Amino acid sequence: MKIGVVTFPGSLDDRDAARAIERAGGQAVSLWHNSDDLKEVSAVVLPGGFSYGDYLRCGAIASFAPIMQSIVIAANHGFPVLGICNGFQILCESHLLPGALTRNHELHFLCRDQKLRIENNNSVWTSGFKSNQEILIPLKNGEGSYQCDDAVLATLEGENRVIARYIGEDPNGSRNLIAGISNERGNVVGLMPHPEHAIESLTGPSDDGLTFFTSILHSLVGR
Amino acid sequence: MMKLDTVEIATNSPEQKQPYNELGLKDDEYARIKEILGRRPTSSELAMYSVMWSEHCSYKSSKIHLKQFGEKAVKSDALLVGIGENAGVVDIGQGYAVTFKIESHNHPSFIEPYQGAATGVGGIVRDILTMGARPIAVMDPLRFGLADAPDTRRVLPGVVAGIGGYGNCLGLPNIGGEIVFDETYAGNPLVNALCVGVMKHSDIKLAKAAGAGNLVVLYGAKTGGDGIGGVSVLASETFGSAGPAKRPSVQVGDPFAEKVLIECSLEIFAEDLVVGIQDLGGAGLSCATSELASAGTGGMQVYLERVPLRDDSLTPEEILMSESQERMCAIVEPTKINRFLAICKKWDVSATVIGEVTDGDRLRITWNNELIVEVPPRTVAHEGPVYNRPIQKPDYQDRIVSEKVSVPLPTDLDEIRSAILKLISSPNIADKSWVTSQYDKYVQGNTVLAQPEDSGLLRIDEVTHLGVAVSTDANARWSYLDPYEGAKLALAESCRNIATTGAKPLAVTNCLNFGSPEDAGVMWQFSETVRGLADACLELGLPITGGNVSFYNQTGAVAILPTPIIGVLGVIQDVRARTPMGFTKAGMDIYLLGREEFTLTGSEWAYLHNQRGGAAPRADLNHEARLVEVLLAGQELFNSAHDLSMGGLAASIVEAILKNGVGASIELSSTSEALFSETPGRVLVAIDPKNADALAKLSNSKTINCKKIGVTGGSELNINNAIKISIADLSKSHTEVFPKLFGNSERANRISA
Amino acid sequence: MAKIIVEVMLKDEILDPQGQAVSAAMVRLGFNFVTGVRQGKRFEISTASTPTSDQVKEIEKAAETLLANTVIENFTVRVEG
Questions:
Q1: Which residues of A touch B742 (CB under 8 A)?
Q2: Strand runs (DSSP E) across B436-514, as ranges?
Q3: pTM over 0.90
Q4: CATH architecture observed for domain C2-80
């Protein structure tokens, strides 16, 4: 099963995401920002990093890349997309997901092991988790504070679209401790913490992150 | 109007006065340039010589001492590329080569902490890239003035944000480093940056311009007026009093440009498109062109007007001196240039052919067809002045060494308890997560151990599990008392830190931070340090792969403590077998490996009582080597292993407890002495009780003292069943210090905004 | 109500990576006539009434010590409304 990983100039975790896909049993296919070719992949991961330096707003310039035009069209037809960290920011700037990620409330970059609760295990990216499963994966960002207006927040909560929530002290000031959300259809998921850095306990705090990648592969095979 | 100073004009106006003093050249140095050229230099040549013959670029005060690193060195098969190239390269087996190097960016980080530290990371990463390697990690040994000093609250948060801001954006895990405070670093913070890179043997690249007809390509960022404040004296002369805009002495980094430059360069290397390569750092194009040319046959022609500029008002002299960041210079065969340029275009990296390699032995630089530089490149790059500066042991040296350390040691239980809490909340010992959590340690997915572990450990091969460990260490207090022993002790500590994680020490790099070389006392500290390091490397059988010297870390007459930062690279065959620093579970026996001696000289406890004097401990490298052997041979026995250094047993056991929240009960006689002594060459290990005999046998065979002091478990540090400190209390004292000191620094927020 | 506006810009000679990235993106998106962008910060400081010249001087001091990093940035201060 082929899953694409987009490399933007400034992407950092693209090789880690590809490794996670391969570890989960899939085939990782590298996609280039400046091409609109999705190379027949069945799903896409937008990796972490600082696309185009993230100089205007995080993810803002990337959302105009040719590859994103193809991804937006496909995603609106149900194509699975997982945006991690910068990928989440790009999904918000592309309006595939509501809200925005703003500067951490402590105002500096924060890298730490973070406990999360999987709030929704119905999405194609989280189906392998148990209901309300607690996981430990790295969080690392400077602008990870999830913000949206009250109406959007009510919709997200009401439609069970909060995918994962931080446990314990709020690491970055996100509303309702939101760590990840999905679109209405559930095929597009944005997640601030990094599951691709937790695929084996040797190099990560756990191997909990691998389940995101096995989930999508199972979901795709099941189709 | 600009008056261009050409070779022709220079030849015809030998009497013209030139501002060489203002550019930092001495009378005799200027005379030597005239002798080399047989005429006065043009202003462009003067700019090149002045910057390349500066202390920073020419090592003119240190060269004569650094020779020992080569002369005394053991012959090592592991060393693929030695001192003299951008960075040394070490064979770690399985066809992999690893390169690592430390550089200082001290002074820029004092002026503008964020940008100074950021561009320091950028520079060392390009050095590693230039060898053909993919950079895989960074670490940063830092020194600041007193933690509660107002200026430290300006400098530290800015430096930390700059290191994180740049390194995180490059996708390089930050896996180690140190932070130490001392009043002598006020006004002279030390910001040293280390980078590690990996490549296959066949991919090693050298800074060499060979083959007449090959093209000189400048690629990366455009050239601006960065870091050329000093050369404005030339500009003002050629421009008249009106002058151009003030040139910034601060360089601003663009980590995104560097990230793209890294990926672009690695793609170029993978297709074998370059003959030689050099990054542009200090002294910019002056350095890159003269070094590339002198490593080849010497001939090179550069058309300077082709250099893409960010600021059109730059003069040729300024273009040659500009230290704009994120630039590289490559030598490319004409048949490969189209492919080279195509890869640059793919990454949106600007690339310009600015010249070619020529027959002959002159570096010629023209500006719109006018010849402005014609020099033998070796005289610029390598044949600068060499000084044998006066060396004299400082007057105070014998006095401070003869001082008797007299520090009150706690006696009753309450006093000992408070003393432990006081020690672990001293800024030098306290938890540094406030700093390290601003660095990405996970990116690239190969970080097996990172700070606060004894060394950073990286997986190199996902199939064979081969890995490397890197550690940096210095004990400036011991170096102050005895720079010779201090250097040896720093190397020993760094090796020990490598071995505690289970890796075998393989090679050494260094960054030697000192005061002014014009002070005979500082030169004595420096020469003793170099002698000590060279002797220690010889004794331990480790090659020195390169290094960096930073002088003039001095305010008025007050120099910093001599601070030789020693970096050691180790190799581990299977990273899965690494040993962590923290206690992992209850029921393990705790042992102390190493001598039971009482040393308070230079200790944190003495420092907390304002005592700097005394005789530094002597390094016993034979003992250190045997200890390393025990650590490596016993790797399978150890559940955890943690070096004892600053703060002694008290600091080490608290760190081992707090890492995973596993308590310990220990039995100590002469409790205070045992807790606060900083005798070198000791390691705290935890083993399964069933392995007790194996450990005893092993340590006996290497004649390393091995003593059981307690067991792991519980939720407190329990000493002699009399002093009990809960993990919660230990944690509070240890972790609240940095957030309190630096957590709400408005300036830090502003600068990183 | 009045406002004191402080605008902080990088000095002309200082590299502005943010501005460069935005400029490149604008050209990519078809705003071909754009030749450069520099990005700065604007602070709107509210006061109860029109500030006195001494107060403006105070704000200039604040701008110099806090809002701007005068090693690499320039600033302007003006009163609005």
A1: none
A2: 447-449, 456-459, 467-473, 504-513
A3: yes
A4: 2-Layer Sandwich (3.30)
